[in-house]
Amino acid sequence: MLDYADPRDPLTHPGMAVSGSARGRVGMAVHNGAVPHSSSDIDTDLSPDPAFPADVDSALVHAAHRAMSLWWASNARDLPWRRGRTDAWGILVSEVMSQQTPMSRVVPYWLAWMDSWPTPQDVAAASTAEIITAWGSLGYPRRALRLQECARVLTRRYGGTLPRSYEELVALPGVGDYTASAVLSFAFGRRIAVIDTNIRRVLSRVFRGVESHGGSATKSERRLADAVLPGEGHAVWNQSVMELGAVVCTAKNPLCDSCPLSSRCLFLARGRPGLGEGRTRPRQRFAGTDRQVRGIVLQALRSRSVLSRRELERLWDDHIQLDSCIASLDEDGLIDILPDSSVTLPA
Ligand code: SF4
After folding, report:
1. Are 194 and 277 in contact (CB under 8 A)?
2. Rounded mean pLDDT, 169-192
3. How is 147-174 classified by DSSP, letter by letter?
4. Closest residue by CA, ligand 1 atom 1
5. pLDDT value at position 279?
6. Is 230:278 a contact under the CB 8 Å cutoff?
7. Is residue 167 among the annotated active site residues?
8. What is the pTM of this model?
9. What's the gap in Å between 266 CA and the centre of ligand 1?
10. Centre of ligand 1 from the C-alpha of residue 13, in Å
11. Phi, psi dihedral angles at 199 (to 5 degrees)
12. Architecture of the domain whose range is 1-283
């Protein structure tokens, strides 16, 4: 595993090289040695994209690499899955848990999870009730079920190890483009651009001077991410840009005064036009939602093996909403409904 123990890591070897693509046209980025996200991502159309600049400023890219490697060396959060302290499975678990949940909240859950089940085989052998209970208040508990399905496939098909190809990784339950790329980059040291909302926002602001759009990553955002990916130190680049987007270059209140890229950022130089407009979606209210009701039912089941109908009704006054949530939890495989209408976690 390379991750932060990579001898080419700029923490110990400052000065990451600028990729060949960064010196040339962005349209050639996917042909410069970076692992394409899928065969369908290989873009043979090299004609200029009107929505995207024809060139990337190589001096800007080079300067950004150096600034980020220095920033990372003294600012990276000391998370337990970093600095070579876990394996590919631990990284995959951290990435699944971190989707839609802040990393600071993930840490105690990740530590407890890896302590109980350090390998995919351990997760595969656990009961589903144990898995859902261990997920605690991380939210979106279907991720826990998908992680267990993933562990079972890994155990059955790969002997409990993670495959090293993008195609095999994205075929695993619960693993999408982002998670597959993160595992390839952070665990296996593969040269591949990792693209999440934070990275898209930072790259778009710094190199294009505009906000990134919501929704899925566009082709030009992928081109940009591939184009600016360094030839060396790419795992650190991916993680440092992601970290910058999480703690400094946030969607609504970027802390430009303390940003390592402030002297080079096109977005800042242009007066931060349309700041915040690129937010993917407004923050959703939680109180009173089905999400809250489902969470209350699961939380109650984590401390009691069975909840009777009467106990369920005491959890939430709106019994129509309650029944709807119980039905959806059952449909998702997160609970079992017993013949007397009591509920339990799945065996
Ligand atoms: S200078 Fe501001 S907008 Fe530009 S990358 Fe840094 S925090 Fe983001």
Report:
1. no
2. 97
3. HHHHHHHHHHHHTTS---SHHHHHTSTT
4. 262
5. 58
6. no
7. no
8. 0.79
9. 9
10. 25
11. -65, -45
12. Orthogonal Bundle (1.10)
